[in-house]
Amino acid sequence: MSLRSTATAPGLPPPAAGRSRSGGTRARRWAAVAATAALLTTLGSVPAIAEGPATPDRAADGARPASPAHTPPGTPEKTPVAVGYGGAVSSVDQDASAAGIEVLRRGGNAVDAAVATAAALGVTEPYSAGVGGGGYFVYYDAKRKRVSTIDGRETAPRSAGSDLFLENGKPIPFDQAVTSGLGVGTPGTPATWDSALDRWGTKSLGQVLRPAQRLARDGFTVDETFRSQTADNQERFADFPASAKLFLPGGKLPVVGSTLTNPDLARTYDLLARQGVDALYRGEIGRDIVRTVRTPPVAKGADRTVRPGDLTRADLRAYTPRSQAPSRSHYKGLDLYGMAPSSSGGTTVGEALNILESAELGRAGKGAHADKGATTGGDHGTARSGGDARLSEKRFLHRYIEASRIAFADRGRWVGDPAFEDVPTRQLLQQRFADARACLVSDDKALTSPLPAGDPRHPKRCDSSGTASPTPYEGRDTTHLTVADKWGNVVAYTLTIEQTGGSGITVPGRGFLLNNELTDFSFAPITPGVHDPNLPGPGKRPRSSMSPTIVFEDGRPVVALGSPGGATIITTVLQTLLNHFDRGLPLVDAIAAPRASQRNSATTELEPGLWNSPLRAELEALGHRFTKNREIGAATGVQRLPDGRWLAAAETNRRGGGSAQVVFPHGTAPTGR
């Protein structure tokens, strides 16, 4: 089976006229580079691959505990930043990042390494992604200077109607939709891997699956994050024998420091390696998926209501990754490429940046780094500021929150699957629409949500006369990986099974969980009488918030990043971009900084670093209302430094910290870098 359907931008044109980067913003960009250099000097040489077993001692923070008896030699130590030559990989997990590095070291390119990393995440992050899910793949081809995308989003069965989640005219309970066959969409992840490798890779699927197959067979060390996520799903998993057998060994939670193996997944990967993805879309794996969806294997005596789904083998055979152009937006001399609908990520991040285009968001005080901003330790960083810098941080956060609020209002009204809906993608990203919306923002008073959407087809300045629609709930688990290679190719790839643990249903004998992606559809119109572009339909893709993004300056990639987190993905990517390019933070600090997330909701979510800051009271004085969220997102990114080295950056604490690795961490580039 060859799945070639991808989208390609015909090249990287220069920045649009009138969008040259302001001197102040460019200065902050170079200040961030200088700060990064200083950070690297402080860090010294960060290892790409540890020489022996990892021995981290941060089990309480979610890092993998020491387990020399089970940790294979060469397992990397978990570190949130690494710099060097030969390529870079950043993900939430060190075994997964190491799989990508292994492929790069064996001559593979960024696409090969991305698929290898994703497959390994299917082993170590099975509650976030895997064979049973889908995602969005953004690729920059350095030789051709083109950005291409793959929409590997799951699709509804061809029998699905707009009433998919209605019974007696009313929406079924959300939790019952999640844990069911009804919420399972046709998986898109294997087709995404096949399509990416077929078009841009240099290795076969079998070759890039080897590290993940080995990891599934030999096992990985359970950390506190994995145990905690299992505990959150313990009752669900116990109701499905295959899930209980895999994730609740002996009927109990896995012990931190123990080794968890997944021989069924190892065999699934072996079958995919030998037969290709036809084994799923036309073969025995697909047969087992359909049987599981249509007759969920519930444990005897379980009293959970588990509705069957209507997925068929014909739905699997009909699945194709979608071809479409990437989204493209501009911000103060930068060009940003991401995912166009069915994901709302590219259009919503782009619209928010357009709203902020004319705003001066740099720090007050003595240059871009007068205030050190968020630290990289403790409770996701602590907002540190003083004097004028604090006032600048208040103004920055206020404008960022308001831009997010407005962009989410427009997202909810206009974005859906473009194969079924008339999505005004181009108009949503036009500066004239953003300017018409930006005039709603006042530095003296917060807007009130839900805010009515604007009309990008016929922009009216400061128009707020429409019908307001709240943003519906969206599951917050997903994973993201970012890869670069020695040739300058870059991949930003976000993949998911939706909820933490997906549907909770493991395919018997196959070792992977099924997604619950169809619950990303609106169960009923959000606002009665107003068209909802995200209602279910036959073969339709539910709207996503995934926002894999590659940023260019003067035609060259400078940063790529993305994050998990449901609808908070958009705000995480947006805030990280602003932290780095406007606030001048090194990429690892831009990722670590405490986050706020406003999604056209009555309240804005704050992480503890902002919740416990004086900034909260200052923003409340403007009319903002807040709720506390322990953790928002888990970003990863790569950055091309001026000297040609790659920097990989990940979380310092969220989800137990991420894993940034490079091929050659030394200061001298190897021959043929």
Describe this structure in words.
The structure is a single chain. The chain is of the alpha+beta class. 32% of the residues lie in helices and 14% in strands. The chain has 21 helices and 20 strands. The strands form four sheets. Strands 1, 2, 3, 4, 9, 10, 11, 12, 13, 14, 18, 19 and 20 form a 13-stranded antiparallel beta sheet that branches. α14 (345-355) packs across α15 (388-414) and α14 crosses α18 (568-581). The radius of gyration is 23 Å and the shape is globular. The model is unreliable at 1-6, 14-21, 44-73 and 364-391 (pLDDT under 50).
Short synopsis of the structure:
By secondary structure, this protein is α+β, with helices and mostly antiparallel strands.
Specify Rg, calculated over alpha carbons.
Answer: 23 Å
Structural class: alpha+beta
Largest sheet: 13 strands, antiparallel
Instruction: Give the termini separation.
Output: 34 Å
Helix-strand blueprint:
Blueprint: E1 7-8, H1 23-43, E2 81-91, H2 94-105, H3 110-124, E3 134-141, E4 146-152, E5 166-167, E6 170-171, H4 174-178, H5 189-200, H6 205-218, E7 220-221, H7 224-232, H8 234-238, H9 241-247, E8 259-260, H10 263-275, H11 278-281, H12 284-294, H13 313-318, E9 327-331, E10 334-338, H14 345-355, H15 388-414, H16 425-428, H17 431-438, E11 479-485, E12 490-496, E13 549-553, E14 556-562, H18 568-581, H19 587-592, E15 596-597, E16 604-606, H20 608-611, H21 614-620, E17 626-628, E18 636-640, E19 646-650, E20 659-664
Parallel strand pairs: 16-17
Antiparallel strand pairs: 1-4, 2-11, 2-19, 2-20, 3-4, 3-12, 5-6, 7-8, 9-10, 10-13, 11-12, 13-14, 14-18, 15-16, 18-19
